[in-house]
Amino acid sequence: MVSKTIKATSTAAIIKEIDKATTDSFKPTLAIVFLSIKQDWKAVSDVLSKRGIVVFGATTSGEFINGDIEEGSIVMMLLDISPAYFKSVFLETGQLSTLENAKLIGLEGKSTFKNPAFLILSGWLTEDGENIIEGITQGFGQDVTIFGGMAGDDLSLSGPMVFTKDKSSDKGILALIIDEDKIEINGIATCGWKPIGTTKTVTKSKGNVVYTIDNKPALDMIIKYLGVDYDFETDKEIVTQIGAYYPLQMERDNVAPVMRTAMLANREDRSLICAGNVPQGSKIKFSLPPDFDAIETVIEECHELKNDYQQQADALIMFSCISRHLSFGILMEEEIRQVQEVWDAPMVGFFSYGEFGKSKTGKHEFHNNTCCVVALKEK
Q: Which of 74, 211, 263, 305 suits a disulfide with 35, CB 3.0-4.6 Å?
């Protein structure tokens, strides 16, 4: 399997790049497309579909290709993978729930391949991140491989989308089901964030809304505890900054914590709206702002994945939470570059609103503030 990565800042420019990349010896069958919501996803998708190339696409909150971070652009990975080795499925939450659709995707994978892996892109389904994992697991079974990310929209919070040929939706689930008997797939969901302070309890929550922590309003609690000096009434960026720099770590027994980012807040009841569910009764800790140690942890876990499971890769896909970009700043490019260098393979990725994957000690689940790396190699 050969993969090539290309980028551009307009539809016309990406068409030229596609034409340059495709030759008599390289005829791609699959395009992984990540682009700014400002770009014309339909025009790009139409160009690829007319060439017989299956489109697996999402809008982003920033894109990256190999070691370079882009903004407002189009990044793409073209692969010449045999059409017999993969299947694309697009479903939309509406008549059926996200959980029911995800279960159908799991069943489709089970009926298509003996050993399927699921790469997932989802639209504006933040409250349903766990339901996507749970549904696929119900449909296929417990021993399932799931990696992916939730689409972004340049932090406008207006409706990130997934798209494929003639289809798009901000409530869509786009699955790329891959035959693991033909394509080796391994990945890691890692964050490197360090906890701070004592364990606290979420005393009131519903879904992804946290009302109280240790019986105190969640927003007031996090501001006071962390000593964040903001005027909430005038500073609209407070929640973005808190979520980026001080995510919650939900503790579990004998497995790595799962991260939850505060994306929005309710000024009246002082609650936090997180990018993922936080069950009432959850034990949590706050996190320290990241430093070089966080990057070192991510790179170390990638090296462990390479050494223990997958020495080589034909292609790399990376889903990195937008909160990491906000908090890491210029260090983010260093993390992406070093991850790519672990396998020295073509990489494409984007900054997401949530990540699907497996931590070193956990199961496949829904994450925030996490870097999810997937390595693919034809057998």
A: 74
Nearest to 153 by CA among 256, 59, 273: 59
- Which region among 151-155, 267-271, 288-292 has the lowest average model confidence (pLDDT)? 288-292
Residue type, 357: G
The C-alpha atoms of residue 199 and residue 6 are separated, in whole angstroms, by 45
Three-class secondary structure of residue 62 per DSSP: coil
Contact (Cβ atoms closer than 8 angstroms) between residue 41 and residue 47 = no
Classified as helix, coil or strand, 85 is helix
- Shortest CA distance to 151 belongs to which of 349, 379, 360, 373? 349
Distance in angstroms (rounded) separating the CA atoms of residues 63 and 333: 11
**Per the structure block, which two tokens stand in for 176?**
């790329």
Q: What are the C-alpha distances in Å from 82 to residues 2, 6, 29, 221, 330? A: 11, 20, 7, 53, 38
**Length of the chain measured in residues:** 379
Both tokens of 252, joined, read 């579990």
Query: Phi and psi at residue 252, in whole multiples of 5°?
Result: -135, 160
Lowest-confidence pick of 169-173, 210-214, 291-295, 320-324? 291-295
